[in-house]
Amino acid sequence: MRLALLLLWHLLSLLPGCGAADPPPYDPTWESLDSRPLPSWFDQAKFGIFIHWGVFSVPSFGSEWFWWYWQKEKRPKFVEFMNDNYPPGFKYEDFGVLFTANSFNAYQWADILQASGAKYVVLTSKHHEGFTLWGSPYSWNWNAVDEGPKRDIVKELEVAIKNNTDLHFGLYYSLFEWFHPLFLEDKSSSFQKQRFPISKTLPELYELVKKYQPDVLWADGDGGAPDHYWNSTGFLSWLYNESPVRKTVVTNDRWGAGSICHHGGFYTCSDRYNPGHLLPHKWENCMTIDQFSWGYRREAGINDYLTIEELVEQLVETVACGGNLLMNIGPTLDGTIPVIFEERLRQMGTWLKVNGEAIYETHPWRSQNDTCTPDVWYTSKPEKQRVYAIFLKWPISGKLLLGEPVASLGETEVQLLGHGQPLTWTSAKPNGITVELPHLSFHQMPCQWGWTLTLTNVT
Length: 459
Known about the structure:
Elements (H helix, E strand, L loop, with lengths): L1 H13 L15 H4 L6 H6 L1 E5 L14 H7 L3 H10 L20 H10 L4 E7 L26 H12 L3 E7 L6 H8 L6 H18 L3 E5 L6 H4 L1 H10 L8 E2 L31 E6 L19 H13 L2 E7 L9 H17 L20 E6 L4 E6 L7 E4 L10 E4 L5 E2 L1 E3 L5 E4 L14 E6 L3
Parallel strand pairs: 1-2, 1-7, 2-3, 3-4, 4-5, 6-7
Antiparallel strand pairs: 8-9, 9-15, 10-14, 11-12, 11-15, 13-14
Function: Alpha-L-fucosidase is responsible for hydrolyzing the alpha-1,6-linked fucose joined to the reducing-end N-acetylglucosamine of the carbohydrate moieties of glycoproteins.
Organism: Peromyscus maniculatus bairdii (Prairie deer mouse)
Family: Belongs to the glycosyl hydrolase 29 family.
């Protein structure tokens, strides 16, 4: 009987969460919090979609920073835009009722996001304007349930994503608000007072996590205030130790002045950060399809949007250097994803259907970029003894020189993803290999914007 009980205990101990002690709690210090291992799903995912949507989508002019540029900096083109399009005395708050979201369909969004090949999505729950996309009791009536859509946008998208896709659901949240009187009062005291984070920021953060259980919590906008003003370490300690997402949630590095690129789960360092080389810490390149704005701009021209070739290059270079790509779109005020954004998302999905093996769940190789052919980037799966060489330009000669791989006759095999037949290769001098690419017509190409060679048994 005793032996049977011991055997049962041993079997239970092998199950997740059974028989093993819980991990030690994380103290509210950066030293302790930074020691938390990043949940593995995030590094494996590689590709996510950012969505900037809010009241700034109503004027949809210049930037999602419309309010700041119009009221604080009084930039001429923003002042002129208001004078030309709205009556005298029109206030930014008056845009709230015009933020209708009357074409917003969360399940349609989910289908488009799934088609992109992304593995996570991050929605702006609140930008620096302070308008929340859920009915927060701490936002008075400046939210999507009491104003404009009269709907809980966050909940609708959360349900659609979790029920109809394999994407992880994430939320962006701005810590500060440009013109909130309590924040301005705290700022005037050099942040000796903490009325704003105590009455607004922290309650909303706890509410977001408990109510919507995001796997990504993407903080932003510290307003120049240090992390101790926001009580960031205290909140993150709760998030990692006690919250309902403590085992899966990932966080970024924007938790107060001085924390960016130094503390937090993964580093963002700056908008559109793309170092081009391997970093010792997990990082993310958050960038925009519209090169000049995160929110939708009605005046954007076709040349303002990155091409699919440029986006594939961003993804490949980012992943080769150990990062994730978070690619941003901006819906219109009525909740439509503009056609140009939908096209780019679907194009990325088409590319990833062929080349995803070289992106998802990969690791950086010993060389990120080829020394002989600069348009070649490498990823790897050591457990399968595979190296992936992703080349962004098809050579006119039909021969691709790779200066980094060390190959062995009789052991090394080279294939083109989406083609299937082994390719002929020869040793190059002084090192590397030259691969004979197949002669394919345009319609026979496995994809149109970048191609992947699978190299098996190279060093």
